[in-house]
Amino acid sequence: MPNPVFDNSPVFSDPADRRARTNAQPGGSTATAGQGNARTLDVAQLDEMYALPSAGPRETGRMTYDDVIIRTGGLLALLVASAAVTWGVAPGLWVVGAIVGLVLGLVNAFKRKPSPLLITLYALAQGVFLGGLSKFYEDWHDGIVGQAVLATAAVFATSLILFRSGKVRVTPKFTRMVLLGLVGYLVFSLLNVVLMLFGVGGGQFGPMRSGWLGVAVGLVAVALAAASLVIDFDSIKRGVEQGIPSQYAWYAAFGLVVTLVWLYLELLRLLAIFRQ
């Protein structure tokens, strides 16, 4: 899976690629035959017991879609609040937020079990990063941040609709293509940064991210981010169907936030190139 958050968590992996893992949940105590004070159940009591609804995922401690939605919404709310404070108070802290967010992102991505505290701190750090950076973009191009936010929401909704409709299916071939695209984009971006550091070419975003070439690369990056969202949705669906523990909803929410942050940054940069 392209998203390292889901890729490094064994509970979200494809059952075809691993042996079945069991996540036993502690249950209540059971009474054994012959135990003191045991009483015989009559027919009416048995009928009443059978009439009770079966335990759902929440009662058995399994992850549900609601768990993922609530945690994702909470992390995004913290991110937006942190971004708003940074925007109005100290936009220059975006560099600190970028470094802290990168470190926390790597730590969370490679942890076997989710840490709600570290994931929450990641969301706050990314808010500082995005808040300060967005302020600078808004100063350069009035109204660009609102456009980027709406575009991010639109791409997210479109990816979810396509996934739910079954028109885009996550197959091994689809995953390999996205992974190869991400590797190629990473190499391209690193080369562009190196050229910027050595003063080769020009442009606000480097010699390889300016003009129509920058537009083409930006569109490819947005398409890769949208495809990554589809794979994230498939990982979450698989986790819910396999009945993984509810604590891993933090991982799912973290993975979605990582992809959404990347998507927002690519759209922000793409819109800035169009404005030029």
UniProtKB/TrEMBL annotation:
TM segments? 68-87, 93-110, 117-137, 143-165, 177-200, 212-236, 248-265
Indicate whether Transmembrane appears among the record's keywords.
yes
Mind telling me which InterPro entries this protein's record contains?
BaxI_1-like
Instruction: Report the Pfam families cross-referenced here.
Output: BaxI_1
Q: Which domain of life is it from?
A: Bacteria
Task: Name the segments for region: Disordered.
Answer: 1-37
Name the residue ranges with Polar residues bias: 22-37
Q: Which residues form the signal peptide?
A: none
Keyword annotations: Membrane, Transmembrane, Transmembrane helix
Is Membrane one of the keywords UniProt gives this record? yes
Fetch the PANTHER family from UniProt. Answer: CONSERVED TRANSMEMBRANE PROTEIN-RELATED
Under what name is this protein listed?
Bax inhibitor-1/YccA family protein
Q: Which organism is it from?
A: Cellulomonas chitinilytica
